[in-house]
Amino acid sequence: MKRNRRPSNTVVILTALCFAFALSSVMLWATLRHRRAAEMQIRDLAEDTFIWGDFTASRIPTTLVFSDVFTFRVFDSNTGQSRLLYDERTDSIEKLRLLLSSETGDVRGEEAHLLPCKNLWDLHRIYPIFTQMNKTPRLQLASRLNPGLIRSSNIIYIGRYGGMRELEPFFPRHPVSVEIGFGGPRLYDASDSVSYSPGREGDRINDYVLLAKMPGPKNVTILYIVSFSELGSHEMVRQISRPTSLDELKNRINSRFGEIPAYYLLIMRVQGFEHTVVHSELLALHSLAFDQVP
Fold it and tell me: Does 51 share its domain with 194?
């Protein structure tokens, strides 16, 4: 009776190696193809003149400016103890003292400039758009920004309305204005004669984000992504930093407002919770003429 010969160990090993090599080659090809497609999408995003093209194609460097929050040490004269206080509504020790009018104790220096965690995700989304075009944007906190840098650099500001500091004088005053009162901030749109009230209802956040692109001093371009809490600006960055969501946003703008102007101010309502957006809605789009730019 003839016995079937079993393949030698060498043949088995060679077969396994050939299979592993073929499988790894297919995986490498798929990875490179996916990476290439992703790079092409980012390049298309970087060249889109609605947002990024004016910055990535410019010979003027771009500075990403983030609004920072402050912590201050409060010393209680009665107990002799101190505590570190944080409030996202403040961007200076003077504003903090107003908020602490009912506090007992002295508010002293020892300022710490903190970058909100969500801004790190914003940076993670934006930075590849520039590096894909061989550009490296500068990074700066709003509290460290100086007028000389504003005149010599394109600016992309991301953060709270109350944290613009040196950039606040360049923000358009018409048709939108913001009032900060005892009842909280109120956003007023003079063109549509309507006002909006950002705030919280329990854990639910009702925020408004302003996206404004305009010419700045000395032929620079300034892009504002401004909201009243971190939720709105973070959601706007998400929408404009992904090809599919940016196309959706542009389609929504075109279908509702028609042609997108070169310089504009857009208002969007963003509702959700601390880390989750539930709903976003376009409310208004205004064309900015040069005489509306401060």
Answer: yes
> Is 265 found in the same domain as 176?
yes
Q: Is the pLDDT of residue 118 over 90?
A: no
Write out pLDDT tens, residues 177-188.
887 665 678 899
pLDDT value at 225 more than 90: yes
Please count the structural domains in the chain: 2
| Residue 37 in domain | no
pLDDT of residue 57: 92
Single out the residue in 113, 144, 169 at which a domain terminates.
Answer: 113
Domain with 97, as residue range(s), is: 70-113
Of 285, 210, 289, 214, nearest in space to 254 by CA: 285
Concatenate the DSSP letters of all residues of the chain into one string. -PPPPPPPHHHHHHHHHHHHHHHHHHHHHHHHHHHHHHHHHHHHHHH-TTTTHHHHS-SS-EEEEE--EEEEEEE-TTT--EEEEE-TT-SSHHHHHHHTTT--SEE----EEE--HHHHHHHHHHHHHHHTTT---EEEEGGG--HHHHHHSEEEEEEEGGG-GGGGGGS--SSEEEEEETTEEEEEETTTTEEE--EEETTEEEEEEEEEEEE-GGG-EEEEEEESSHHHHHHHHHHHSSHHHHHHHHHHHHHHH-SPPSSEEEEEEEEEETTEEEEEEEEEEEEPPGGG--
On whether both 127 and 251 belong to a single domain, the answer is yes
- Confidence category of residue 101, pLDDT binned at 50, 70, 90: low
Same domain, 246 and 135: yes
Give yes or no: residues 152 and 85 share one domain. no
